[in-house]
Design brief:
The protein is of the alpha/beta class. About 35% of the residues lie in helices and about 20% in strands.
Length: about 475
């Protein structure tokens, strides 16, 4: 985004006031229509940014007079916030929406709505319009703040409402948020992406990069700390690009330092990072800031320079390793590295894939998020020749996951007997009386403990490392 575009990067105060008026109109409307508060069911697919968007949607719905339920069959408003990153997520949405056809027939006053990245694609919106006539409201990623107006039109009009403008979108400050958790919070710092990796639909559905002003982020962060949140994750499609469109520009590292220096007992996480924009300044800031988690999620996608170039990733294997080795040098054993890998990109050979395996061995990540390539209509990669059969890609995928399982187990074993300051975030899965916590490096440690510990920092000793989780025990202050 050019710096001259900042004038259109933020939703005007007048427009936000207009939405408040529609909030009141919907509130009056449903008060007259329902004896009890109507219930809304919001179903979210995809990334943490989608989760943050859904929290804003629920914040607006709450002000309009809705209660909430996880049971879509008892809701008067059912909203799907969709993801377009992989075909599987899209198929799940179509299946779940289709299953509501008979429910809508029996409950014609129920509003069925779809939003999110899938809906920002014209061919998807057209399919909903033609094949799912019982869907009442469809809107894209750039008009979430307009939900009060869109819902008012849906409730008072006779026509279905489709609002999918072909724009880059803007930042809407001050939209109410109903957070899903009392223990951790998502804090978007920027939206959109300028990278145009050839396999990725995100720049097309999320628009160009636009950063929130520092003062707005700092103020929201302070509010979260005052409300008792102790683990706050900064979000962006590429957080490393934060601030390039601001006047004057501010680096992501500078923002991290500002937040780290605020008063309070909290931990800062961030995602997702792009290697081409990951600077030594950022790594140095992570190492020097006591409240910034020593966890670096830095997707490399492939270990082959030829495939990285075809993906339009703008870095090489050597450049990626230089960043990782510098981070390890500064943070040592405290650093936890995670990454993303795509298996079976169009044109990838087994020799290319073996280079990915060798990079996995060099990086020794704590864990990997691995995916078989999924073509996305409208992206350059979807038009590339892709001769490798799915069965062969599945074999490669298993080879990769088997290797990473060995590496993860080795990494976990190094922590036996260590004591970590952990943030307790929820109930555990290893046993009924266990709670789950994360250490600074984002490793999960479960231990026997009361649920009253959720939302607090505790010292936990690792007593049994498993493959993807560790069993621990609570360490009392006098035992340290």
């Amino acid at each position: 985004m050019d710096k001259t575009d900042r004038k259109t990067a933020v939703v005007s105060k007048e427009e936000l006031e207009n939405q408040k008026c529609f909030t009141q109109k919907v509130s009056s409307l449903i008060s007259a229509r329902y004896i009890k508060k109507p219930k809304a069911c919001v179903i979210t697919y995809g990334c943490q940014q989608n989760v943050a968007d859904s929290e804003k949607i629920k914040g607006m719905l709450e002000l309009m007079g809705y209660d909430f339920t996880d049971n879509r069959l008892e809701a008067q408003l059912i909203l799907f916030n969709t993801c377009a990153v992989r075909e599987h997520a899209e198929d799940r949405v179509f299946g779940n929406v289709g299953a509501l056809k008979s429910y809508k027939r029996s409950n014609p006053d129920t509003v069925i709505a779809l939003c999110g990245c899938m809906m920002q694609q014209k061919h998807i919106a057209d399919k909903i319009k033609q094949s799912y006539p019982f869907v009442d409201l469809v809107f894209g990623t750039h008009v979430i703040h307009c939900l009060p107006e869109l819902l008012y039109k849906t409730l008072t009009g006779k026509k279905r409402v489709f609002e999918i403008p072909d724009i880059d979108g803007a930042i809407a400050e001050g939209v109410p948020v109903k957070r899903d958790s009392d223990a951790k919070a998502w804090l978007p710092i920027m939206y959109g992406c300028n990278n145009f990796c050839t396999y990725c639909i995100v720049p097309y559905v999320r628009g160009r990069e636009r950063s929130r002003e520092c003062k707005d982020i700092v103020n929201e962060f302070k509010e979260l700390v005052a409300q008792g949140y102790k683990e706050i994750t900064l979000l962006g499609q590429n957080v490393n690009s934060y601030g390039k469109d601001l006047i004057p520009s501010v680096s992501f590292a500078q923002l991290l330092k500002m937040l780290n220096d605020l008063d309070g007992d909290f931990r800062i996480r961030f995602m997702t990072s792009h290697p081409k924009d990951c600077t030594k300044e950022l790594i140095e800031t992570m190492a020097s800031c006591d409240k910034v988690a020593q966890h670096l999620h830095l997707p490399f996608q492939s270990g082959s320079d030829r495939i990285l170039k075809a993906m339009n990733r703008h870095y090489t294997r050597a450049q990626y390793l230089e960043l990782i080795n510098y981070a390890k040098e500064l943070m040592g054993d405290e650093l936890s590295i995670t990454s993303d890998i795509i298996v079976g990109f169009p044109g990838e050979t087994y020799d290319d894939f073996k280079q990915t395996l060798s990079l996995v061995k060099e990086v020794e990540a704590t864990s990997l998020f691995t995916f078989i390539y999924s073509p996305r209509k409208g992206t350059p990669a979807a038009e590339m020749p892709d001769p490798i059969p799915a069965e062969e890609k599945s074999k490669w995928f298993k080879e990769l996951t088997d290797l990473q399982e060995q590496i993860s187990a080795k990494q976990m074993a190094l922590h036996k007997g260590k004591v970590f300051k952990c943030y307790v975030y929820g109930k555990g899965k290893l046993d009924d009386n266990y709670v789950a916590a994360r250490n600074d490096g984002n490793l999960i440690i479960e231990f026997e403990g009361d649920e009253s510990l959720i939302g607090t920092f505790q010292n936990i000793k690792v007593i049994e490392p498993l493959t993807f989780v560790m069993r621990g025990e609570l360490v009392k202050e006098k035992e340290l």
